[in-house]
Design goal:
Distance between the termini: 47 Å
Shape: globular
Strand content: 35-45%
Structural class: alpha+beta
């Protein structure tokens, strides 16, 4: 490999970094949007934020394994009545050039009348895609933490 090729490699790597993933400053915006998606739906029972910050083909895989499209998610917001607050922790942003996945732990506080019963802590992954210069939620999956995993701090 020539010296010219070697000198070109750092510039190529820098170019890949600048076009590949969203800027770190955007991570804060995405984390804020992700938190507000939880709060608006589960505490306020409001669908407007979801409608404005998700794609029409948005899908959720809920804790019971039920797959819901955006319309069904909105129709089911009443099931969250009784939630007083949420604790969102262990937030991590996993970014690529085409999407961002935010993982976090979610704890629900209050009495919830969900058909599957009470829900303990969850590990949640929300996927965002870039569409029309905006990051929009594409999907969300929620997995209940097993007691043994939670006891070891793994979930």
């Amino acid at each position: 490999m020539s010296r010219r090729s070697i000198a070109f490699l750092p510039a190529l790597a820098l170019a890949a970094l600048t076009i590949a993933a969203p800027a770190h400053a955007q991570h804060d915006d995405l984390l804020r949007i992700n938190r507000e998606l939880f709060h608006s739906q589960m505490v306020e029972g409001d669908s407007l934020f979801l409608l404005d910050h998700s794609v029409p083909e948005y899908l959720v895989v809920g804790p019971g394994g039920v797959v819901e499209d955006r319309r069904r998610v909105i129709d089911g917001l009443g099931a969250f009545e009784g939630i007083d607050s949420l604790t969102i922790s262990r937030e991590r942003v996993h970014a690529s050039d085409t999407h961002v996945v935010i993982t976090n732990r979610l704890e629900i506080h209050g009495s919830v009348a969900l058909p599957i019963g009470p829900i303990g802590p969850l590990t949640v992954a929300t996927t965002f895609i870039r569409r029309d210069s905006r990051w929009l939620a594409l999907s969300r999956t929620s997995t209940p933490c097993l007691p043994a995993a939670a006891a070891r701090g793994l979930c």
